Each structure stands twice: as C-alpha cells, then as structure tokens.
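Hello,

Our lab assistant flagged a job as stuck in the queue for most of the afternoon. It eventually completed. Since we weren't sure the result was trustworthy after the delay, we are filing this so someone can double-check. Below is the sequence as submitted and the structure that was eventually returned. Let us know if re-running is recommended.
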Amino acid sequence: MKKFFLLICFITLITISISPAKAETDNSHYDMMLEDIVYTFLSPLQSKAIKDYFGEMYLSDFCKFVGVKTKPDQAYRYEITYQFVTYERAIMPPYHLFTLKVENKSLTNWIIKDVKVRKLAENEDYTKICRKPMIIR
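-- returned structure --
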C-alpha cells in the first residue's frame, strides 16, 4: 500500500513538473472595468451634452473610447474622446451616436471641448459598436 501511495505521489510530481503553469495574462476584463469607471466619472458631461443637443434627457449606452491624450507639460491633464449612443425610451429608435471630446483644466474641472452627433441609419446595428457594462461575479 505504501509503495502504491509513493508511486501515485511520484507520478503526480512528474506530471506537475512537466506541465507548465499557466498564469492568467488576459487583462481584458480589468481594462473594460477601468473603462466603465472612467465612463461613469464622465457621465455628468455626457448628460450635459445630451440635454444641450436634444433639450431633454435621453437614455444612453457607452460604446468605446476613441482616444486619450495626455498633456506632457502638465501632470494629470488629459483629453479624452469617447462615443456613446442615445435612444428613446427602453432601447427604441431613433438612435444617435455621440462623439464627445472632454478635457480637464485641473484635477476636478472637466469641460466639453467638442460634440459630434450622427443619427444612426435604421439598418445600422449599434450593438456592434457599443458594449454593455462589465460585470464580474
């Protein structure tokens, strides 16, 4: 019995030493969660752009970050361009794709630099360019 147990331990040890350990290097969940945090932080600017454009609030979903630039001469200064889609009521058309460019003048003072709005065509599927928030369980 002892020999059998030692044999099993020896085979297990050899199997473990032969098979390489795989570390999880996929950071996509983490990156998406960070995007969601930044998007949430910038949501008051998004609400202002929607209200300025339509005159009232519309529902919206995040699409993607188009670009992030830093101001090398000043610490913690950024220019962020991102897209989101608006829709009426519970995900009903018409859909509008907003491209919003914002920047911060200080750590807490963010302003809208540019707003571009394009009405999506009826056959254009916004779910191909937008994503739902990252939920990790």
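-- support follow-up --
The delay was a queue issue, not a problem with the job. The result is valid. The mean pLDDT is 79. Residues 83 and 99 are 4 Å apart (CA to CA).
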